[in-house]
Amino acid sequence: MNRSGLTNRLVNQFLFATIVLSMPVLFAGSEYDISKETPPPPPQPWCETPPTLEIRIGVPGWLAGISGDSGVKGVVADSDVSFDQLLRHLTHVPIVLSADIRYQRWEFFGDGQYMEVGASATLPGLLFTNANLHLKSGLAEGFVGYRLINCDKATFSLFAGARYTYMEGDLSIFDNGDARLVILRQLLGISKKLDFSGSTGWVDPVIGARGKVKLWKAISLYAEGDVGGFDANSGSAFELHREGPTIVREPVDSSDWSYQVQGGLEFQVTHWMWAQVGWRYLKYDYNQGGFTNKTALNGPFIQGGVNF
Q1: How is the chain split into domains, by residue range?
Q2: Is 292 helix (H, G, I), strand (E, B) or coil?
Q3: 53-307 has which CATH code?
Q4: The pTM is what?
Q5: Which residues contact 116 (CB under 8 A, 6 or more apart)?
Q6: pLDDT of 198-244, one tens digit each?
Q7: Number of Cβ within a 10 Å radius of residue 107
Q8: Sequence-distant (≥ 6) Cβ neighbours of residue 299 within 8 angstroms
């Protein structure tokens, strides 16, 4: 090997050693410390538990019509009255209220309403020419429920409780003060005014289920259904029928059942205010002691309230 080749070989080895030995120094400033990296946030669970305590107070408005059979003292008649007809005969603003309290998975809720309607009519007779009718109805229900699904985005509960129904009717018929009928009325022993009144009330045991699913941000879909009565107040019942010139009292099957479904959309308007828009249906099948209520309340349902 000549001197030139040996020189080139030594130079190459020197350069290679210099590069290898210099690499730690060259890359020392770019060393990556993984311990300083910010960890990614943990994934959010689908079921976030809501606050421990929640209180909701609402003012419901049920724009329901009434249809079906009803009667007092065995006299049964069919009726079909729309909400606008009821509205025209209201004697005062209905009293309505709802409350819903939840502690952890336990729920305590209920609602009630009281309404009075009245109407007057002119009679075709001579002895009695005018009539006034005044009807009162009340509904109150309370339940205790337990949430099987208790999430911020979805809930599902089973509940049990009671529903109280009250109905009262007052009927007055009287003459218009025609002086020509005074003697005839005295001879027949008929007073100038006759009053009839009656009332009934009963409590039904109720079981049911309800749930709610959040659709988008502040909008949720809710639904509720229950069944009650279970013939708890059934006994003997009768109805009156006309057979020729006579009135016949006929025994009929006694019953005590009720069914209810409702559902719609709920809007969380602000942090403290909410509103519901939906539909509500309540069916009675009650026949006891000459009183019949086989009517259905059916119509739009709106409600607004506050939550704490």
Answers
A1: 53-307
A2: strand
A3: 2.40.128.100
A4: 0.78
A5: 90, 91, 92, 134, 135, 136, 137
A6: 788 999 999 999 999 999 989 999 999 999 999 998 887 877 776 77
A7: 21
A8: 62, 63, 64, 65, 83, 279, 280
